[in-house]
Amino acid sequence: MKTLTVRYFAVFRERAGLAEEVLELEASTAAEVFAATRHRHGSEEPLGHCKVAINDEMASWDSPVADGDIILLFPPVAGG
Amino acid sequence: MISISSTTINPDQLRDALVDPRAGAYCSFEGWVRNRNEGHDVLSLEYEAYEPLAITEGKKVIAEALQKFPGLHAQCVHRVGKLEIGECAVWVGVTSAHRDEAFQACRYIIDEVKHRLPIWKKEYYVNGDSGWVNCERCQSHAQSAD
Hints:
The complex is a heterodimer of chains A (about 80) and B (about 150). With about 80 residues, chain A is α+β, with helices and mostly antiparallel strands.
């Protein structure tokens, strides 16, 4: 088990009803964290439309996660 | 140089900061809040950014633009917070010796900023509903409520 801090943004935060939570997860990749928290952020968007960052670095969904990491889950962006 | 601003963007002031005697061309882009999107009448917008990574990624975008289309200076400012119709949401300015590089770098920056920076847009509609742009469930909900 890993202790991970997961942060939600924009629509993910609104759906989760919180901006951040600390979770004990078996996840080994960022994609597995996303899947494990799906009931919270309720994403129907394909994974490829969302983005992830680990410890304030943009990451890919197959990036490994380690105990103590901070995982930032970004819904589809819409700047401009 | 990229910045995230919670106050009104002043394009004239930003342009003046780019003045350079070596520049023969200046190209800018302003993105404005419009009153209609995807068939909905829009009342106002709210932008949210995760600033630490928006800045990091924005710096990369600008460095890439100046490498691909060698110019002199490039700058981008993106708003956050509540914006009314007609307000400037994003500004890009590029100077270069000749016009081609300025046009191309400006286009590159705005396109990449829209796709890569962790910035989100929530629309508030005339019918009282609201929705996050590019969020599938929000869009279908807004359409059914229209």
